[in-house]
Amino acid sequence: LLGQILDHWFESEPLKATLATDAVIGAMASPHTPGSGYVLLHHVMGELDGRRGAWGYVAGGMGALSQAIAHAATARGAHIFAEKAVCRVLLGRDGQAQGVALQDGTEVRSKLVLSNASPQITFLELIPQEQLPKDFVQRIQQVDTRSPVTKINVAVDRLPSFLAAPNTRDGQPLPHHQCSIHLNCEDTQLLHQAFTEATQGRPSSRPMIELCIPSALDPGLAPQGCHVVSLFTQYTPSMLADGLSWDEQAKNVYADMVFDCIEDYAPGFKASVIDRDILTPPDLERIFGLPSGNIFHGGMSLDQLYFARPAPSYSGYRSPVPGLYLCGSGAHPGGGVMGAAGRNAAQVAIKDFRHL
């Protein structure tokens, strides 16, 4: 249990609760959920510029990371087809993957296919079910993809000024503006209560909020004097109780509640808002193909990790379809902007390619 780990090392309840957020981030789980301690460790895996467990902003926004990978690939001769939706994986008579078909009718032939889509899209939508073992299909259908995340992107005309650390007169970013700011995290019981409300089909009345201001480090993201604020909030159920849907009214009611919470910590925040973009779990699924809005393509619980990710006997990136590999967050070791699944899958694919 995460609570036991934190209680062993720390005494301060606000510190424990703030650390606990990384154990439940993206997970429909509470700090009291068995196995939640692993997700905390997962978030400090690896290193950045020689610093173990460090995180960083991507200059130019997260899209710049995709562009950097794309440029590296094209420099080695890769061809990238953007905005070209794949509708199915092409299979030969022997069931071997032979490329992909695009929605516009184009067929792209290849000896190997690597899918960065979720296991659900890859195996339940892009492959005919009769080509897959029944127990494998059932396993993919049963993957727990519940997600509590609603992402809110905000444009503001000034930096938020927190009661605990007011802004200076010149309005320049202070050290805390350049970090991850955790709100409604005074104690772990608050997080548990927020989780409990969501399990009953209601958005949390006091949601867990992780607030980042990337423009404080990367001014090019916003006009001079203005900033972009990224709000990663929990807990919001994918399916609301009483048959209600995430319509515009429900989205705005929840976002207003989030903004009211921020206002308590940083008076004047609501008045500084120029515009906002609210992405609930159904929005994240529709726009980005995340199953149930899950940023990890499936829960990072202990029953869905290691040899069981995405399914027992298929944790090594190969799939039941010869020549088709899974290389996204749904593969081992799971989600996070670290590229481990992609790197590992590429090495397996290269090894197989040499024998074709």
From TrEMBL:
GO CC terms in record: mitochondrial matrix
Subunit-structure text: Interacts with COX5B; this interaction may contribute to localize PYROXD2 to the inner face of the inner mitochondrial membrane.
Role description: Probable oxidoreductase that may play a role as regulator of mitochondrial function.
UniProt entry keywords in alphabetical sequence: FAD, Flavoprotein
Domain Amine oxidase: 35-170
GO MF entry, a single one: oxidoreductase activity
Key word Flavoprotein present: yes
Superkingdom of the source species: Eukaryota
Compartments where found: Mitochondrion matrix
Name of protein: Pyridine nucleotide-disulfide oxidoreductase domain-containing protein 2
Similarity section: Belongs to the carotenoid/retinoid oxidoreductase family.
